[in-house]
Amino acid sequence: MSKKITIVGGHGNVSLRLTRLLTPTNIVKSVIRTLDYQDEIKGLSAEPVVLSLEDSPVSDFSALFEGQDIVYFSAGAGGKGGEERTKKVDYEGALKVFDALEAVQGAKPRLILVSAIDVRDPDKIPAHYNEADIALSQRVRGAIPVYMHWKYEADKNLVKRDTFKWTILRPAGLTNNPGTGTAAIGRTHLGSITRDDVAKALALLADREDAAGLALDMVAGDSPIEQSLDAAIKRGETDFLG
After folding, report:
1. Which whole number is the average pLDDT over 60-87?
2. For residues 53 and 65, is the Cβ–Cβ distance under 8 A?
3. Alpha-carbon distance 35 to 12, whole Å?
4. Residues 26, 5: Cα–Cα separation, whole Å
């Protein structure tokens, strides 16, 4: 059945791939911060909507979300603008979307949020991590500490909310390699994953209301994405450990 979907952060590399997968069978709106991107969005058969996570009020997002079935949040500062902008987009922008969803009158859209693997309290090391995972985690946290901190604060805020349904996808380090159509999803080890494969998992989540309340890690693996995602959802274990 066709769904009404809004993608916040619509010009991101994953979002563009996701839009291409969704538009053949769904009605898609893509939130962009400048008209410079509108032709590209229209070329993917989606409707561009210009709003700013930094400057537009909550009410504008809430009005946009009225009547929608799903909202994807796949926005981020991308390391541009330093710590202040990272906080403004990755944390405050995310909370603005959460607040807007809560303000929707009547049926509220489901939120599918793109976060990152290993986003957690730095003092809580997952029990399944091996020495290689811990070493990689330390390297990444040392390289992008501000990003990891504000993603954690946003996710920590989201998991406490219960007025709308949400799912978090937590992909590993992203690559532009061609998608493989396979992955390991759920409590797994650290690594990398292609943007193509992340977009495919996000598209599949549009039909998985039973993933509500779950945060799911995703890395490259050998199982077809559909099977790996289904198994992770059926296990019912969240990968956000606080």
Report:
1. 90
2. no
3. 14
4. 7
